[in-house]
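Ligand: cobalamin. Inputs:
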Amino acid sequence: MKIVLTHTYFLEEDENEKLIMKPHPPLGLLYLSAHLKRNKVDVDVYDATFASFSGLIDYLDQAEPDIIGIHCNLLTKYNVLKLICYCQKNEITSILGGPDASTQIDEYLNFGADIIISGEGEEPLLAVLKTLQTNTKNELFDIPNVSFKTIEGTIVNNGLQASRHRLDDYPFPDRRAINLDKYLDTWESHHGQRTISLITARGCAFTCKWCSHSVYGFTHRRRTPANVVQELKILIAEYNPTHLWIADDVFTVNTHWLRKFQKLMQEENIYLPFECIGRADRLDEDIVMLLKELGCYRIWIGAESGSQKILDAMSRKVSKSQITQSRQLCKQYGIEYGIFVMFGYPGEELEDIYDTIEFVRDLQPDQYLTTVAYPLRGTKLFEEIQDQIIYPSGWTDHLQRELEIKNRFIRPLYSYAIKKTASEYRKRQLSRSNGNKIKQVYHSLRSVYCDYRIKQLVNVRTG
Ligand code: B12
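Predicted complex:
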């Protein structure tokens, strides 16, 4: 039995990413591939990132796999649906996994997928492949985390079990299964650095209500520092990276771990500048110093809102002053500070929006990214506002990020809030550096214009 693992994310279809050009390989699939190979399964990975849907189909026509394992996330749903149709037509068994599949089991099965594996994939996927040697795809009873349909068409959900597997026991991601040079070359030609990604932990135990915990629940497991260093040595020998992207949900949670890691990196004489995600409440001076010594050149923080009321509503468990302090510390130690900002969280009023705009202006992060909140399935936020969600169309015709929430401001208002944030931020930046006066005037005017537009829109609500 031959299985192909793939993900249907095509960079060429992603207009935003084409401007950024910071692609990352599909680590989850590479972990699965390594685990299957260790267990003597005949597996290939088709890395769609630099390909096209027709390229994927040409490959599959030739490879003729018995099974296709598909990673599903928020962005890739439409291509996943097309691929499910291809599988049905060609009598290939489709197995879906990843965050989007884990929360929409019935929908994907009813659309025509054969099997859904929720949560961490290594063990259940192997168990399914073993069972398929004797059973049909309609008889996968008793394998935790697996859902399928019986021959009569009834959905069977075997229930979810959080993995307790020690991460060190998994083999390193099977990067050789794909052409990693394409990623490194893309980074090098666009950013002058050869960035490679890895994870040192899985899962996040914090409780932010909008965040998807569909894969790892609220668990947090770390690899040992020695195991991470071992992987790094291989990466350095094989790929000669100049930079790392540490793709953990929150890299800065465990000071003790960071200290051990830093010591080991020093002993092994490894120094690679890296970027990672942290939390403001996990960035005291000890941690910031450690990060600096380790080579952290940029940290991303979910600042999310300048309104403490909204931060508390999100169950973020971070205060505005912690964010400000961590920003100061990062500045002091020469670490770039990037933040994520969210508008449109339920309960947010105009004054909260203005608090956020002022907060971003005053904080002056080195970079910031904005989103308008959307309720992901399986999150506490989704649960809380279920009856206020507006579905733009049937399940097959929208992505979760297009879901609208009743009784909040309409999208154009958030667009003006985002534009005003940009102008206020830029104006402050320019005035601090004594920069171009004409640009300062331009941003002042644009900011006032945004106020005017926001005022016009403030009485219009969704739904
Ligand atoms: C690092 C990261 C990124 C990085 C790198 C992404 C990449 N291509 O590697 C960047 C910053 C680019 C990114 C971007 C986005 N991300 Co992101 N990201 C993450 C993060 C923090 C870690 C991902 C990771 O590497 N995990 C480690 C690996 C080992 O785990 P894994 O990928 O989940 O794989 C395991 C299981 O899912 C399962 N599995 C996965 N695939 C398959 C397939 C089969 C067949 C089977 C059986 C099992 C299986 O088994 C794997 C091994 O155990 C996760 C949070 C998280 N905890 O996972 C969010 C997360 C995956 N991202 C998310 C989102 C929303 C996005 C964006 C859509 C954001 C946006 N721009 O709007 C984009 C999409 C990018 C894309 N190319 O598709 C959401 C997904 C929610 C959803 N329902 O889809 C998550 C869960 C964050 C969250 N908590 O809300 N992301």
